[in-house]
Design brief:
Number of domains: 1
Shape: elongated
Distance between the termini: 47 Å
Helix content: over 70%
Low-confidence stretches: none
Oligomer: single chain
Order of helices and strands: HH
Length: 41
Amino acid sequence: MGDFDEKSFLVFFITNDKRACQKQAIILKMKKSFLAFLMII
């Protein structure tokens, strides 16, 4: 039950707040590339 509730909540959250999710994804990508940049140096 907990698994199902979590999934349905995620779907609900994503469909209702796609813009925020896209922002978070962009921020995550930037953080990852920044970390990779630091690793290279």
